Amino acid sequence: AQGRTVVAIDGPAGSGKSSVSRAAARQLGFDYQDSGAAYRALAWFVLERGIDLDDEAAVVAALADFDYGIGIDPDAYFVRVGDVDVEAAIREPRISAVVSRIARMLPVRAYLVELFRHVISSSERPGIITEGRDITTVVSPDAPVRILLTASEEARMARRSAEISGQSAQEVAKHLSSRDAQDSRVVDFMNAADGVTTIDSTDLDFDQTIQAVVGLVRRTSG
Ligand code: CDP
Ligand code: CDP
Fold first, then answer.
1. Ligand 1: which of 99, 134, 159, 189 to mutate, most ligand atoms within 8 Å of CB?
2. Which of 24, 30, 141, 187 lies 20 to 30 Å from 4, alpha-carbon distance?
3. What DSSP designation does 190 have?
4. What are the DSSP calls for 154-171, one per residue?
């Protein structure tokens, strides 16, 4: 619809994209789209079907049956495949460990980019925040508000290990860096593209980071 504010946020794992975007959307009365959830849900679906994750043709063929559903109301967030609620399952380390292997397949990316654009254009709120790795550059390069949310590697690892139980801090750090390294080969989310505003959250607490995003959106969209 017209006059809506589209907000694009990218950044590496643990920079605060999901939690900050969702909270900012809530404050602004916007919708919130977690694009990483779609890559994770597809990885879950492919594993469920017993498809070889490196068999690109088989993964691409599976897209025809991939019935993905996401809740974009920040107060009613859900992720479903068919009628299965996969929100918890897609965060498991077994998914994080393999998701980059399907995210590097270009037909998979092309398919999901269209899906994200469709969700953005069907939102009925005054705005929508979408976060991921290639939202500012590929999905919504024309968005009026584009943000690269960063934080030092140390801060990102510390935040993630605080969330994950059952893995040592070293393990979490090792897995996160290797996922970022693999993902970086496909899209650059470590450097701000032209016109993209960097928000470095290393020395900001959670609330200050939300306010930095909300402030930028309000200043830009008036
Ligand atoms: O939240 P976290 O940073 O752990 O990752 P995520 O946003 O849930 O994304 C999971 C994975 O999906 C990433 O590691 C990328 O492989 C892929 N992804 C992507 O390729 N492009 C996006 N726009 C979003 C996620
Ligand atoms: O989505 P992404 O991987 O970028 O990060 P996230 O899962 O939203 O954030 C990782 C953790 O960092 C969450 O528990 C946030 O509450 C926390 N965080 C923080 O402690 N300080 C910030 N300034 C931003 C996020």
1. 99
2. 187
3. S
4. HHHHHHHHHH--SS-HHH
Q: Which one-letter DSSP state was computed for residue 136?
A: I
Which residues, in sequence order, are bridge partners of residue 157?
A: none
In whole angstroms, give the CA distance from residue 140 to residue 163: 30
**Beta pairing, strands 79-81 & 197-200:** unpaired
Tally of CA atoms within 13 A in the half-sphere of 116 that contains its CB: 30
In whole angstroms, give the CA distance from residue 91 to residue 20: 17
Distance, in Å, from the CA atom of 18 to the CA atom of 130, rounded to the nearest integer, reads 9
Cβ contact 210:27 at 8 Å: yes
**Angle at 29 (CA atoms; ends 207, 26), nearest 5 degrees:** 35
CB 6 within 8 A of CB 119: no
How far apart are alpha carbons 201 and 208 in whole angstroms? 8
pLDDT tens profile 147-158: 999 999 999 999
Ligand 2 centre and the CA of 19: distance in Å?
Answer: 6
Tell me the Ramachandran region of residue 8: left when phi exceeds 0, alpha when psi lies from -120 to 50, beta otherwise.
Answer: beta
Q: Is the pLDDT of residue 1 over 60?
A: no
Average confidence score pLDDT of the chain: 95
Sign of CA dihedral 96, 102, 108, 109: positive
Q: Number of helices and strands (H, E) in the chain?
A: 9, 8
Is ipTM strictly over 0.90? yes
Tokens, residue 42: 């597809």
